[in-house]
Amino acid sequence: MRRRTFLTSVGVGATSGLAGCLVNDGNGSGEADVTIGIVYSTGGLGDESFNDMANAGVEQAVSEFDIAYEDAEPEEVGDMNEMQRQFARQEDIDLVCCIGFDHQTDLEQNAAEFSDQQFMIVDSTVDADNVISYVFREHEGSFLVGQLAGMLTEIEYAHGGGESNPDESVVGFVGGRESSLIERFEAGYIAGAEHAVEGIDVQRAYAGSFNDSSTGQEIANGMYNDGADVVYHSAGNTGGGVFESAQSNGRFAIGVDDDQSISSESFSDVIVASMVKRVDNAVYESIQSVVEDSFEGGTTNDLGLEEEGVAAVIGQDFEGELPEDVTSSLEESRQQIIDGEIDVPTTTDDS
């Protein structure tokens, strides 16, 4: 296995040359059978969430198949186009993985120009014969963690003493950048919280970035100061600030994409749950299709609770600690969503 990581100099007057290249030969073997190019979303690796989940998928493929991969981490959305194109130009790249909805517009153009190259995209759909698309029903998993947040406001467990007044139940949601994708997280969370507690106050705010932990902390501080017991983030690296705020305020937080009670273990004492999104499986399966010569472009994989594409996972420090009626209610709602008895909205009332 070889992994080559590069950063690209992209901007006005930039060329397609590599600004730098780090070669890391994992086992000293010769050329791999398949080589993957993966372009992450902004925020890059180390977000302990979305991008790291994508990386876990390619690393799983490395462990099981004879593949090598190159990856690129865009600092801005504007970097993505040239990174896609650099991989598409390389004759030895068999699949270009585009991680995140911000890739869509560029990929629509590049898939047409590089019609012999195979691509995959996560969190958006590109209708092209050489692209496999993976989208998720984030609102379904978000409903469950919203329901959990609402139920926690109603019990002594969430406050360290004293029953809460249902009229004063408050939870929060922190998004990264506003988009139809993040709105699905928000809409599902609100619906779940209201399913648990009629009239609950769901405070909502966007940081404007997936890589601004200080703003995430500032927003969450305001929510906790206004009485929120639990804050859920869908904000990438910005969510680290939410966890810091929860810890300093003695409240709870809910993670996203990965089980962040594990990936952000220093905050495991406040991460009561995470809405896990199996981006790793999407990346792995797309690579597997290339290895096994079963790649089918022009297809969209739509993954929700039923397909185990999303899930609500209790944090590692809280396993076996939550009241049984809480966990049983969550399981009941999960099945009702799968059976179509609960219709989870994808947009908010103010959209």
Secondary structure layout:
Blueprint: E1 2-8, E2 18-25, E3 34-39, H1 50-64, E4 67-72, H2 80-89, E5 95-99, H3 104-113, E6 119-122, E7 131-136, H4 138-153, E8 170-175, H5 180-196, E9 201-206, H6 213-225, E10 230-234, H7 239-249, E11 252-257, H8 260-263, E12 271-277, H9 279-291, E13 299-303, E14 310-314, H10 324-338
Parallel strand pairs: 1-4, 3-4, 3-5, 5-6, 6-7, 7-13, 8-9, 8-10, 10-11, 11-12
Antiparallel strand pairs: 1-2, 12-14
**Class from helix and strand fractions:** alpha/beta
Q: Can you tell me the CATH architecture of the largest domain?
A: 3-Layer(aba) Sandwich
Average pLDDT rating: 89
- The strand order across the widest sheet is 2-1-4-3-5-6-7-13
What's the CATH H-level homologous superfamily of the largest domain? Response regulator
Radius of gyration: 21 Å
Estimate what percentage of residues fall within beta strands.
Answer: 15-25%
Number of helices: 10
Instruction: Report the sheet with the most strands, covering strand number, pairing sense and barrel closure.
Output: 8 strands, mixed
Number of strands: 14
Helix content: 25-40%
Number of domains: 2
Shape: globular
End-to-end separation in angstroms reads: 47 Å
Low confidence ranges: 1-30, 159-166
Q: Any idea of the CATH topology of the largest domain?
A: Rossmann fold
Query: What series of H and E elements makes up the topology?
Result: EEEHEHEHEEHEHEHEHEHEHEEH
The CATH class assignment of the largest domain is Alpha Beta
